[in-house]
């Protein structure tokens, strides 16, 4: 377990955030960590599960940043299904 910096943006937000996640966090947790800084602040809460996209590809909820091939400071996009 090690801190892993990523850039994150929630669909509908105009702010790209620098978020520290853990390299063993599954994408479901990464999505929550990114959304925490935007939802109910600049973006309204939405129903559904948050999903993470990396380079246009939706990542499985159980993938980690390491197994998904995410590099430090890559941009992860969070949207809701």
From TrEMBL:
Pfam families in alphabetical order: TmoB
GO molecular function terms attached to this record: monooxygenase activity
Keyword annotations: Monooxygenase, Oxidoreductase
InterPro entries given in the database record: TmoB-like_sf, Toluene_mOase_B
Taxonomy, superkingdom: Bacteria
Protein name: Toluene monooxygenase
């Amino acid at each position: 377990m090690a801190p892993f910096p990523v850039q994150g943006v929630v669909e509908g937000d105009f702010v790209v955030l620098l978020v520290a996640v853990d390299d063993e966090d599954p994408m479901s947790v990464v999505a929550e960590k990114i959304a925490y800084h935007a939802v109910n602040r600049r973006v309204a809460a939405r129903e559904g599960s948050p999903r993470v996209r990396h380079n246009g590809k939706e990542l499985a909820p159980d993938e980690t940043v390491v197994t998904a091939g995410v590099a430090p400071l890559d941009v992860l996009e969070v949207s809701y299904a």
